Amino acid sequence: MARIAGVNLPKGKHAEIALTYIYGIGRSQSQKILDGLKIERTVKIETLSESDLDKIRDVIKQLVVHWYLIILVALNITRLQEINCYRGQRHRKRLPVRGQNTKTNARTRKGKSVAIAGKKK
Predict the structure, then answer these.
(1) pLDDT at 117 over 90
(2) Residues 14-49: pLDDT tens digits?
(3) Rounded distance between C-alpha atoms, residue 107 and residue 69, angstroms
(4) Confidence (pLDDT) at 20
(5) What is the rounded CA–CA span in Å between residue 33 and residue 17?
(6) The domain 67-100 belongs to what CATH superfamily?
(7) C or N terminus of the chain, fewer CB within 10 Å?
(8) 104 pLDDT exceeds 70?
């Protein structure tokens, strides 16, 4: 089992898909990494040689991924909350941040709806 950036990559997956298991790497990023190293996208992770895996590790070390990226996002959110900007207030209230409608939608963010007693007349 290949281990890159603290993540165990699944054996039976293509290299392009397996790299997306690392937080911060999507399909396009994994395609760029593999194309830059001239590794076939459809090769399975289990068939990659150790030298190919080392090359992939070296490229990924230069990127901001996994735990460092998670910490960075959390710090950015706390910074927004501390400066008390609009986005920070929305994060604090656990409401949608990017201008979505909340009158009828946003159940995922707001939680289960609560009935108001005596409203219907």
Answers:
(1) no
(2) 999 999 999 999 999 999 999 999 999 999 999 999
(3) 27
(4) 95
(5) 12
(6) Ribosomal protein S13/S18, C-terminal domain (4.10.910.10)
(7) C
(8) yes
Residue range 3-60 in CATH 3.40.50.720: no
- Residue pair 97/86 in contact (Cβ under 8 Å)? The answer is no
Measured CA to CA in angstroms, residue 44 lies from 14, 41, 69, 89, 109 at distances of 4, 8, 27, 45, 38
CA distances from 109 to 1, 72, 82, 85, 106 (A): 37, 22, 21, 19, 5
Contact by Cβ (8 Å): 11, 53: no
For 112, the token pair is: 């289960």
SS3 96: coil
Amino acid identity for residue 115 in this structure: A
